[in-house]
């Protein structure tokens, strides 16, 4: 008799556990479906970046296969979403020439961008005596002789989307802003003391 009762008790307990697990699983699935539907309806759009200007202090071969670069750039970011906020985290910005990084990464402070807001950053980028290949040294000399040097301003880091009180996980973001530095017309810069300022208003390529 005792054996039958104990067996009956274990069966009821197992059924209760299964019902609890099933209920939790159903709630989780419903929440995921709701988040997915909200995501589809809102259709988050990646931010838009624009390279506004660059002030060049130096970009020259300072020794055998050694490059020194110093510049300040102004980059704006716009959140095009009407209902979604954007968190920017761990952003680094640096300059690149012919796919080689020529300045140290400069950290951009973490920030939050509300609906359709615009944020502007103006960091300094410096690379003192950066070792480069012989090919890069020759290529830079040739580009400077022709009066056109393409430097890419790159931003890398993480973004999060915010909908109401819900915040997504981290998404990797890569931004590439081409900056055509010209010593001749029509894009010749403006001399400002020892530096030259170039106006761009150039759209950047954004991958998220």
Automatic annotation (TrEMBL):
For this UniProt entry, which segments traverse the membrane? 20-42
Query: What membrane topology was assigned to this protein in its record?
Result: Single-pass membrane protein
Q: Which GO terms describe its biological process?
A: defense response to other organism
Ordered alphabetically, the record's keywords are:
Membrane, Transmembrane, Transmembrane helix
Return the Pfam families for the record: LEA_2
Which residues does the UniProt record annotate as the domain Late embryogenesis abundant protein LEA-2 subgroup?
75-177
Q: Give the protein's recorded name.
A: Protein YLS9
Annotated organism of origin:
Tripterygium wilfordii (Thunder God vine)
